[in-house]
Target: ATP-dependent DNA helicase RecG
Amino acid sequence: MADLNTNVRYIKGIGEAKAKSLGKLGIATLGDLINWFPRRYEDRREIKPISQLIPGEPACVSAMIASEPKLSHIRKGMDLVKVRAVDDTGALDVTFFNQSWLKNQLRVGETYTFYGRAEGSLLRKSMASPIVEPEGRREHTGRIVPIYPLTAGISQLLLSRAIRQGLDSCADILPDCLPDGVRQAHQLCRVNYAYENIHFPEAPEALDIARRRLAFEELFFFAIGLKLLRSRRETVSVEPFQPVDMAPFYNALPFTLTDAQRRCVEEAIADMQSGKPMNRLCQGDVGSGKTMVAAACVYFCIKNGRQAALMAPTELLAEQHYRGLAPLLERLNIRCALLTGSTTVKTKRSVTAQLATGEIDFAIGTHALISGSVAYADLGLVVTDEQHRFGVAQRTALAEKGEHPHTLVMSATPIPRTLALILYGDLDVSVIDQLPPGRKPIETYAVTSAYHPRLYAFIRKQVEAGRQVYIVCPMVSENDELPDERKAVTEYAQKLQTEIFPDLKVAFVHGKMKAREKDAVMSAFAAGETDILVSTTVIEVGVDVPNANLMVVENAERFGLSQLHQLRGRVGRGQHQSYCVLVSDNKNDETRQRLKAMTKTADGFKIAEEDLRLRGPGDFFGLRQHGLPGLRVADLGCDTRLLAEAQSAADGLLAEDPALTHHPATAERVRKLFQQSENSLN
Ligand code: ADP
Ligand code: MG
Model:
């Protein structure tokens, strides 16, 4: 008897080698196998008469073998089987390469279904190496055929046959983790029907029904998991923070906070006074001033006599925060320290010691802040910046350095509301929906590379006016290999320096450089010592150089809208008129549409929604990086209504059965789903 935990080798045709290949896809058991869903489907239901085959187009025909199959050896290692097949409307020459066994399998007078690309002329039609199946056994012809993501050594045919067997052996024991009441209330099909039809749909309608059920299920369990996370947190009590006079902090700032910044600060402060640990996301477009919101919270925490930590995803950002915040806070008697991978051993030792005794109030740094040797005397607030680079696990690891410290997560990725609900279902959200005053909109242009001479003249003009320029460099791949960013950046920088701007200072930075080298280049740029910075997308996140006012993106078609928006957000941070020039020779309609969208809108949320519509959530939003389980069926771009339904169903179920004691199957499924982020469930 097989069950979902049975090894895939149970399946006929899966030996050791194939099992190993399947292992690369993460398929080890029958359960994994039947949960390997098609990437897409091909509708091969229509059987065409031979006379209507169109050369160049794939199609199915049903035809009788009219001649004895002929086998010939063309050369060593190359056999050919030729056969003629006919239907009422015409004849078809069929050839198969290296499938010599077909010579004895195809029988004259029997009818077969063929699927392949028609070739030849209107009068003499042919097909080369079509899929062939006996009439009445339609796996890959005459039906809607699933197309699976594959790996080396595994073919579509093999995989779909294995899945067929897997489904047949598990059909009666598939557990339905969706409570019956929920299933009925939302008019969802049963689990057997769903699995059968997600793999082998009889009709498009059946596929829709199956997909809807499986998508709902994913969203439902996801929502439950997040709600459980949240409710566990809500049972924790902490000493409420006391009110603090914030005037000294506000007076020390070189500007007044915007209303939106102010509101976010107040929301966070209210959380910290509530007696429950804060778990808040502060979301704001690039340049909206998230850093000062964090600083205000840090001030509030430290004036409550507790320590605070700010974790950034790169050394560059950590150092930038340190340079920006330490002078401000130290004037307010707050002792700050920087802790990154390149902090010297000696400094690290002293900082660690002072964090442990509480002599340092505020630590700014990278992952170094969560390394094993670092301990805090009394950590009260944890801020993580540019959160989409961190996983839940890292967020949690820093929080675990304290007794339920408050956490504030800052994200520059404007995430559409639908997605925020999913990704941050366990967080409260504040939005900074306003930019600091006096910002001029960034003028954005989409041009072709023919524009380069004029573009170079424009760059020169900006530099002569005292400004600085970013150029995100072209990435050229040779022979389809992944582009070499180091080579691309250094070569382009060299070309600009020697041929175009011999009199200007050109520098470059890329991800393969050592953190210290990178930092030296960035600091020089921030200090105005270099004019033009050629880089890869390492400058995508968070870097703040207000004097830079021109962003040039070469091969702009390579970037998604949200990424372009992040890049563009590196300029327009000071009082100068800023520009963004997107260079692309790509003529693809969708690309042109995307670049055009960039010239039309500056609103990060609109752009993110457009991006979601054009590209789907994919991994750009880093579902996996979040340490949250990825969604395989649900499409957050399209399934908004379903998401709302699943959320309310999750609310309903938890209201009735908060600990899921009466729904063990559901509880088990949720537990599995969140296994990777187990830490955060405890
Ligand atoms: P982001 O939200 O992208 O992290 P930053 O915190 O880096 O934005 O702020 C962007 C720039 O705007 C910084 O140079 C910062 O000093 C400035 N800034 C922040 N808040 C204000 C404000 N209320 N008024 C004027 N400038 C501000
Ligand atoms: Mg920032």
